[in-house]
Amino acid sequence: MPELPEVEVVRRGLAAAVDGRCIAEVRVLHPRPVRRHLGGPDDFALSLVGRTFAEPRRRGKYLWLPFTDGDALLAHLGMSGQFRVDEADRPLPQHCRVVFGFSDDGPQLRFADQRMFGGLAISVGGAELPDEVAHIAIDLLDPQLDLAALVSRIRTRTSGIKRVLLNQQIVSGIGNIYADEALWLARLHYDTPANAIPAATLTELLGAARRVMTEALAVGGTSFDSLYVNVNGSSGYFERSLNAYGREGLPCLRCGRPMLREPFMNRSSFRCPSCQRPPRRAAERG
Fold it and tell me: Is residue 61 annotated as part of the catalytic site, yes or no?
């Protein structure tokens, strides 16, 4: 699933492509991406015609496209959802599910989703902050973030620190890739209890997460395959700068020891066995 940098790249692309444009036509090519709309695909399409997009917004990994009338179009990218902006005479992208045409006859907005775990939905009154997203915490790039309060909240948790970082109701936007990268930078094992980490170290960890996501954003995010692209179809290049994620068996870029890949929450964690030693409780279980 795209993480904060990838979703922000998409948001910026959408802002340049749809802000201020009026929808003239919507074609739903497959019903599954609009399955949350109770009125069905035809009603979904009719409900959007005549509305004008405002600037797209984001909280963590969650994206929505406000309308000037106060409602919003929620966009959940899932594992493979993509927005593409193309001229109407260009072939539709593979797995295209929904097409938006505009009154200015300019480029169309197209939503493609190979696996169809994502989708689109109308949020009534959701332009500022959809109710569906209100439970999500603000992210590390949000100027309203209270870092000291976040550190204090994390230190009340007994779970391993990576589980806490992935909890979108504590801090949003961080997924598996950037959690591993931040933990490597901070020299922390993913199973270290959050309440056992000093406040200064947690502040350093969150700073590392913010830094690595900012760097990823600057190069278009992280793309391992064609399932994540920008609205113009281009991929991100941050995978070339990864220090931990995906580097199983390769030398740690800090100490030279081979990097480990270990199972974690139905996925994987990557760490250095020297720089990121397990806490005592994890070592005892092992």
Answer: yes
